[in-house]
Design a protein that fits this description.
mainly alpha, 179 residues, 0% strand
């Protein structure tokens, strides 16, 4: 096969079907668990928009992004461009949300009390993952076979980030209750 050969989209997506099914299932499960955790610890963030958006809501957004991208990849689409636009939309929503969360953090002066590790996991790494997702959308639009792999990296990162952050929030809420 030479460099100018374009592999049809259904063939490329077929080899990724189980991967995106697994990621979508895992992210949907995690969203459900976060709703349960949030209802159990409903008093942990009283009247504070920035902590809610940066810590708890962000995890729901990241898991929902993984779910949305997985659903798009599993949809019976025949057009590279439609697929790319949908993935681009998922990435854009994630980036906009991340920017709004950071804006609220700065506005509420919460950024001064967030340590470097939390800034990495809650702000920097999600932005990197969403930028990778944007790149994956561009690669898919250009019919590059590696677009699916780039998207897998991006949403895999978001899943790991979400799991880390959900655990971090859970530990924080449990230890805070004892104080």
């Amino acid at each position: 096969m030479n460099a100018t050969t374009v592999i049809p989209l259904p063939l490329i997506l077929g080899s990724w079907h189980e991967f995106y099914s697994l990621l979508g299932t895992a992210s949907a499960t995690m969203v459900g668990l976060l709703f349960v955790a949030a209802s159990v610890a409903s008093g942990a963030f009283p009247d504070r928009r920035a902590p809610l958006r940066v810590f708890l809501s962000a995890s729901v957004v990241h898991f929902s992004s993984v779910l949305a991208a997985s659903l798009v990849m599993l949809a019976p689409l025949r057009s590279d461009y439609v697929l790319a636009v949908l993935i681009l939309a998922c990435a854009t929503v994630g980036l906009v949300y991340s920017c709004m969360a950071w804006r609220d953090t700065v506005h509420d002066a919460l950024n001064a009390s967030i340590d470097l590790e939390d800034r990495a996991w809650y702000v920097f790494l999600p932005v990197v993952a969403y930028v990778f997702e944007l790149g994956a959308a561009i690669a898919i639009a250009c019919q590059a076979a590696d677009g699916c792999a780039a998207l897998a990296l991006a949403i895999g990162m978001l899943l790991v980030i979400g799991i880390h952050n959900a655990w971090d929030i859970t530990v924080w809420m449990v230890t805070r209750r004892r104080d």
